[in-house]
Specification:
single chain; alpha+beta; 13 helices
């Protein structure tokens, strides 16, 4: 498709089919709401009349590679327009009326992470300066309205967490009040937001604001590890009401992927990281045939067909985990996860029965996940669906993360630093592979590894760039070459 970079991967032509299908679906799911003030946006749910916050945040991570064909940041711009003066930003809004779809519920507050990541890719400092006040107000509203006396954070129910029918608060709504739970992922997501806000404030030269959010991050990390970490099992859990700080071990006894958000947010010691990785890589817990199951296999609620969040594999979770693994110095595991995810997505896409890109996938078979009867939709009655009803197709949407962002970043090993005009390429993939015609820093660049990786003759690297760029090359994580490339074509052997 014109306007998107062209991946090269001789060993996986089926992944290239998946890649191009992703962009066709993405373009097809762009909607133009009627009424004043709306910008064209990418639909979170094809055919739905709502825009969702955390879907919109996650879509920016792959859409930034196709800025000429999809409106990358328009979803967030539309949401910022609807943000209240006090900072509140709802989990979803109706496209027709512009009103919150589910009252004063919030979604995972990932806008600061999305904006920081887009800035790191694009170098668009003007956008950072424009959106910073809105991001600060959102952080402050959540701190003022979704925080206990103990300092921990809470969602209204599992639907607000985004993990709709996960056995957390809200799943047994007739027995538990969601407000009686503190959620480990919201604390970690606020810590992540604080860290991103500190970095952006420092870039803008606001040392006072940067110091404030550094302190916010430090405080949340301390409380999260004090209350949510169980040293005996080496895992993070949600906890029951935290208004009594002396009661530190009243855990919600379900292992879910929410526990891995602290890895991304810089909350974990080396020992905690290793313990979490043991849980993640355990095939009896999260590392299923199609990883990663969102509910541990040893939980009595786990369903091998996925059943939405009772084990279903979700693209945003896998992307978050890949970013977390890279942050923790494990790009090898990030690549392993990406390869497994793309193998499964491609197998489903190539199948006769399910040839699409899906909202969620089954953890133990190569097929879409199912919904179960009685799953509660947020703010509504249970869905009346049969047990074998599958989730939504053409979900691009955030399921485009795997075929685009994870392919480029985790399989191929590219890291793009727009502000620094720098591309780092960690070569771990054998065979001929790379990217052609990538838009980077208001120009185009093509990077190709031509020749078998690891051969006695080395690897031929070919680069064509129309503007000056810093290129750093690593071999299996070890730096081997770095130089400033002038405009032109270049080739060298590693």
């Amino acid at each position: 498709m014109k306007g998107v970079p062209e991946p090269v991967f001789d060993a996986q032509p089926d992944w290239l089919e998946l890649y191009h299908a992703t962009w066709r679906m993405a373009v097809g799911n762009v909607v133009r709401p009627a009424g004043p003030g709306w910008k064209p946006l990418m639909s979170c749910l094809p055919g739905a009349a709502s825009i969702w916050l955390w879907d919109s945040c996650f879509m920016t991570f792959f859409a930034r590679y196709g800025r000429e064909v999809v409106p990358v940041m328009n979803n967030l711009d539309n949401l910022y327009r609807l943000q209240r003066e006090d900072g509140f930003l709802a989990m979803a809004y109706q496209l027709e009326s512009g009103k919150p779809a589910f009252g004063e519920r919030i979604n995972p507050p990932l806008a600061a992470w999305a904006e920081w990541s887009y800035w790191k890719f694009s170098g668009d400092t003007d956008r950072v300066r424009e959106v910073m006040p809105r991001l600060v107000r959102l952080f402050d509203w959540i701190k003022a309205n979704r925080r206990r006396k103990s300092g921990l954070y809470w969602f209204e129910d599992s639907g607000s967490t985004g993990m709709d029918n996960s056995p957390r608060s809200g799943y047994l709504a007739e027995y538990l009040n969601g407000s009686d739970i503190c959620h480990v992922d919201l604390s970690a997501q606020q810590a992540l937001a604080a860290e991103c806000l500190s970095a952006m404030a420092a870039h803008l030269g606001d040392a006072i604001l940067a110091d404030r959010f550094t302190a916010e991050h430090r405080e949340i990390v301390s409380l999260l590890n004090q209350y949510h970490w169980d040293a005996r099992s080496g895992f993070y859990y949600d906890v029951f009401n935290r208004d009594e700080p002396a009661d530190r071990h009243n855990f919600v006894n379900h292992k879910t992927v929410a526990a891995f958000w602290p890895l991304l947010a810089g909350c974990c010691s080396p020992e905690q990281t290793e313990s979490l990785l043991r849980h993640l890589l355990n095939p009896e817990e999260f590392w299923t045939r199609h990883p990663v199951a969102t509910l541990s296999r040893d939980d009595p609620n786990y369903d091998p067909s996925g059943a939405y969040w009772l084990g279903g594999v979700w693209a945003p979770v896998n992307y978050m985990l890949a970013r977390a693994l890279r942050r923790q110095g494990r790009p090898d595991l990030a690549r392993r996860l990406a390869v497994s995810h793309l193998e499964a997505m491609s197998a489903v896409f190539q199948s006769d029965d399910y040839s699409s890109i899906w909202e969620a996938y089954a953890p133990e078979t190569f097929r879409p996940a199912t919904r179960k009867p009685g799953i509660r939709s947020v703010g509504g009655p249970p869905w009346t669906l049969s047990a074998d009803t599958v989730v939504r197709p053409d979900m691009v949407g955030w399921s485009g993360l795997g075929p685009v962002a994870m392919l480029f970043e985790d399989v191929f090993g590219f890291d793009f630093d727009g502000p620094g005009n720098r591309i780092t390429w960690d070569l771990r993939t054998p065979g001929r592979h790379g990217i052609k015609n990538l838009e980077f820093r208001n120009g185009q660049i093509s990077l190709l590894a031509a020749g078998p990786a690891g051969s006695g003759n080395g690897v031929l690297i070919e680069v064509a760039n129309d503007h000056e760029v810093n290129l750093a090359l690593l071999w299996q994580g070890v730096p081997v070459r770095e130089e400033l490339l002038p405009p032109g074509t270049h080739s060298f052997t590693l």
